[in-house]
Amino acid sequence: MKSIEEYFSGHRINQPYTKVFQDEVEQHIKTLTSDKTLLLPKFEGYLAYLEDGNRKQLEDVYFKRRKDATSLALYLQWEQNEEKWRLFEEMLFSICQEYSWALPAHIRINGEKNSYTDAYETVDLFASETAHFLAECTVLFKNKLTPALLSIMKTEIQRRVLIPFVNREWKFERLTNNWSAVCAGSIGMAAMILLEDGETRHRILQRVEKAMECFLQGYGEDGACVEGMGYWVYGVGYYSYFADMYEQVEGKDLFTASKWRNIAAFPLKAMLPSGNYLPFSDSPEKVSIPSGLNAFFFKKFGIVPAQETAVTDFHFDHCYRWGHLSRILWWSKQEVRDSFQQLNGEFILDDAKWVIVKQPDFYFAAKGGHNDESHNHNDLGHFVLGDAKGLVFDDLGAPVYTADYFGEKRYEFVHTRSFFHSVPYLDHQEQREGRDYQSSIEEISQEPGRLSVVYDLHKAYSITKDSQFTRTYTLAAGERELRIKDAFTQPIPYETHFITRIKPDVFSETLSWNHGQWTLHFDKELFMFELEELEISNHFGEKETVFNLKFISKDHNRLEFDIKVSWLDGEKDE
User: Fold this and answer.
1) CATH number of the domain encompassing residue 206
2) In the chain, N or C terminus with fewer CB closer than 10 Å?
């Protein structure tokens, strides 16, 4: 086992592979001056959240400060610049003066909803990450930082994070999502760095290890991340950063579970032919797996989770998390880029109740599960479908995060409602949230060139809970078609929707995209068709236009409904 000093002394900057990353850091460093960098987050940002749930106003300032501080901490590992060093010390001191390291969205609010409670001692994702960042700075720059500042940093980490963690149990310790890994992992790394061997350190690390076990419970043996790929990067990343330090310093391997190989390989199944990722849940399509994490899993399991043409961009994470960026600098390796292996085929993810069919120029995925998953959307039976150019049948991802989105109004957003997913809308009723609303895979048939999966959806809607309702996806790769069949045992007013970001050409019995490359076929005698166009904002506040294709049955006595999608062999020219 190693001491903390030995652990960090083993990290080397892997030039020339990280040179582009370093150049990006240096480019940002040039913009930093004390008059623009050291301003604390304004009160109006905290007030905005209290008044209308606006997170962005404060978070823009908060994450700009993390970006500046992190860039300086990276830069000063390879460049000795006295002017920037003085600025770095002032930046560290200013972080120690912040009202709270936790974000307003995670701080308790009083009953009148006009003030915050225990903000200074609130431990959330970002308080934990800040403690981790400052703790590692006390080791990396131990002989350079002013002793008075070192003392202040250590004191603030103790008061704001370690002592509050010791003094009470925190909800995130029992969560089976990214929170348990990020919060506990960051706290565990800070504790290993700052606390001498003793009872307090031992108690913290024991609790951290249990929290990591909870995180791992959120993954089945199939390795799927039901939160979405963006949260795979976040949770698995911080689990790995802690586990690496824990193994080398404390001597315990946290990667013994057999499911870890599937967890490491999950991004290979979730990666679309376009290079983006499966956008189920709150995850956007555009996700970057940091090259440091790529290198970690290559070393651990011989698996490279993501194709890598160069070291990860310094700006890939809009929160500029130290855990990711520091390991990009220390762990990234050229050999990882050359060792990537594409993974194609048919994948049945039994625990998540997902089915994925992935080829170099084709992608299909359908999902079951339940409507109380972490970052849940009411989307049981939903599917996506597309090719190397992107998804034709799509998912809307997440909006800008606000208090309402994580509160009682979550399912008023188009992004989460089943009405705006590719699922039925039965007798003017949508799916509802909650674990009672669920879907399982009833039957799977796999033959050469043909896959058929039957989802039991009767528990996905209140109106069908006492009858039977199945959705069957039959994918015939050789015939280049997907058939979607909804079947009921009792008649019901039927309507089904399809979500796309590409406006189709509409004909009497077909819709087409890319001049006939993709075609949806429907029975005009059975269905009325309506095209709903709406403008929404994505997770980053960018406006985009999306389309909801509505097929409304004219026959309320019918028990089965079929729609077919076909595509041509190869990309059609514009």
Assistant:
1) 1.50.10.100
2) C
With H, G, I as helix, E, B as strand and everything else as coil, classify residue 213: helix
In terms of phi and psi (left: phi > 0; alpha: psi -120 to 50; beta: otherwise), the region of 387 is: beta
The per-residue pLDDT for 571 is 56
Contact 456, 474 (CB under 8 A): no
pLDDT at 397: 93
> What pLDDT sits at residue 362?
95
Q: If you write DSSP's letter for every residue of 518-553 in order, what string do you get?
A: EEEE--TTTEEEEEEEEEEE-TTS-EEEEEEEEEEE
Residues 447 and 315 in one domain: no
85/63 Cα distance (integer angstroms): 20
Same domain, 326 and 411: no
The answer to the question of residue 378 being in a domain is yes
Element of type H or E holding 539: none
Bridge partners, residue 345, by sequence: 358
Question: 520: which 2 tokens?
Answer: 């949806």
Q: Is residue 573, in this structure, part of any structural domain at all?
A: no
3-state secondary structure of 112: coil
124 and 239 together in one domain: yes
Structural domain count, the chain: 2
Paired residues of 496 in beta bridges: 424, 551
Q: Are residues 293 and 362 in the same domain?
A: no
Residue 38 is predicted with a pLDDT of: 84
User: Phi-psi category of 223—alpha, beta or left, where left has phi over 0 and alpha has psi -120 to 50?
Assistant: left
Residue from 93, 350, 376, 130 nearest 223 by CA: 350
Residue 572 in domain: no
Q: How many helices and strands (H and E) does the chain possess?
A: 16, 19
- Looking at residue 15, its pLDDT comes to 83
> Does 35 share its domain with 151?
yes
Residues 245 and 374 grouped into a single domain: no
Domain finish residue from 305, 337, 369? 337
- C-alpha distances in angstroms, 371 versus 94, 416, 418? 42, 10, 10
Q: How far is CA 512 from the centre of its chain?
A: 32
Give the distance, in angstroms, between the CA of residue 551 and the centroid of all CA atoms in the same chain. 32
63/444 Cα distance (integer angstroms): 46
Residue-number span of the structural domain to which 482 is assigned: 345-567
**Are 228 and 355 in the same domain?**
no
Residue-level pLDDT at 16: 93
* pTM recorded for the entire structure: 0.95
What is residue 570's predicted lDDT score, i.e. its pLDDT? 66
Q: Which DSSP category does 271 fall into? A: B
Write out the H or E segment, with its range, that includes residue 492.
Answer: none
Picking from 285, 308, 337, the residue at the C-terminal end of a domain is: 337
d(CA 498, CA 422): 4
Same domain as 523, residue 377: yes
Instruction: Answer left, alpha or beta for residue 369, where phi above 0 means left and psi between -120 and 50 means alpha.
Output: left
Q: What are the mean pLDDT values of the chain's consecutive 10-residue runs (574 residues total)?
A: 94 91 97 83 92 92 96 96 95 96 95 91 98 98 97 98 98 97 98 94 98 98 96 98 98 97 98 96 93 97 96 96 98 94 96 97 97 96 96 95 92 97 97 97 94 98 97 94 98 97 97 96 97 94 96 96 92 51
Token pair in block for residue 56:
């962005």
Q: How far apart are CA 574 and CA 564, in angstroms?
A: 23
Q: In what order do the strands lie in the sheet with 495-500?
A: 495-500, 543-553, 527-537
